[in-house]
Amino acid sequence: MTTPFTDAAALWNQRFAGEDYLFGRHPNEYLRAKAPLLPKAGRVLCVADGEGRNSVWLAGQGLQVEAFDISAVGVDKARRLAADAGVSVAFSVADCDNFAWAPESHDAVVAIFVQFADPAMRARLFARMVQALKPGGLVILQGYTPRQLEYKTGGPSELSHLYTAELIGESFRPLQTLELVEYEAALNEGARHAGRSALLGFVARKP
What we know:
With 207 residues, the chain is of the alpha/beta class.
């Protein structure tokens, strides 16, 4: 994404403006696969959750879910998705710097393809995610690796926004890593994440 972050709300409002859900209505497969590690009950925060596919699914698992996104259009669609599913999610419109982060407030923080952030914003975001976790809380994260620039099946076009295992391991060094893997898989997540993809998956626990 080459548009400056100051224009991000307008950019994502435009992208989310259609009736279809840009990344589909179903949860991310990596999140679904790692969900058994989550507590049976507890507070989960979904970072930059767009149209709500992940937060709504987590709420359907019996968790108390909070989610935010910079796009008011996306959050409106997320509220409709939650209503259709018959679940409650505490949605808010905010960017990563202005969200009301609270220390040690959540049992898990989920960040799926939040790669709009440049390196400086990413460092702030990851630090706040760690701080928001209760002791014993989990981070579940998925993103694209630099090889994704070859596939062009989703994600940002800037190398600096992509993840490596070294970057993620260092960024979340205060946590105990449970899984940190780079791999390839075919994604089928709406129109924007479709096809063979170069991925990173990360799960870690706060001591």
